[in-house]
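[audit] Reproducing an earlier prediction to check determinism. Same input, same settings, fresh worker. If the tokens differ from the archived copy the diff job will pick it up downstream; this log only records the rerun itself.
[audit] input (266 residues):
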Amino acid sequence: MAPIMSRVVALYRYPVKGFPAQAVEQLTVLPGGRVAGDRVLNFRFADAPAADTEWCRKYHGVVLANTPALALLQAAFDEQADEIKIYYKNQLLMSDALTDAGRRRLAEAITAFVLAQHEQPLKEQPVRLPLKLVGDGRTPRYQDNEAGQVTLHSRESLVSAGVALGEVNLDEQRFRHNIVIDGVAAWEEQSWVGGHLRVGEVEFVTVVPKVRCLATHANPRTGERDLPVMQTLVRAFAQKEPTFGVGMLSHAGGVIRLGDSVDKVP
């Protein structure tokens, strides 16, 4: 292996699809390449064209791309108790268990929150109601693509994108990745697509550059769309599609910890 002098500086998972990140000190990557505890729950529309236990496109549920104010909520999921606490601006909004009745009450609370927002996907869309909370709380299945993928970007690329956007302290949580590294050249991770990468004990195939959506326009602190991220990525970096970060798969999986090294595998 040829070391590239890079290391893991942040790790995130997202128990509820579309809700803010849970920062963690380690991630368990499952065989096949999904993160344990990541996107295990989803507030989905009633007319979603898939069974509750099956993957479908994110736009068939409440996510940041259609409801930027979701950035103001936090979801704390207790896997042992099968219970979710949802906070709004650090105040408890709702707490319930993942029973049938609890799921209905949680969905009703999120419906009320979404309907109160000026930008949301439920207005004049009765076929999308009632919302339903799907997922078993264990199986990571609601990633943006059917294959799942673990996602990664570098802090150097974040700084470069921030300069182009005129935002010196660009918040990396706009991009909703699992792994953040530093110690490489800006945008270097894009050159890894098609190659192999080892992060800590986990070996990945770097599959695709990550094409971004409107979720990146939402400020993680205010819940308002404030930066034209997609247009800026295309214009400033001569991209055909707005791209930031990479998606990766792993055959065997393993554990990744803060401070782990990142190495190319020849």
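[audit] rerun output stored. Observation attached for the diff report: DSSP finds three helices and 16 strands in the chain.
[audit] end
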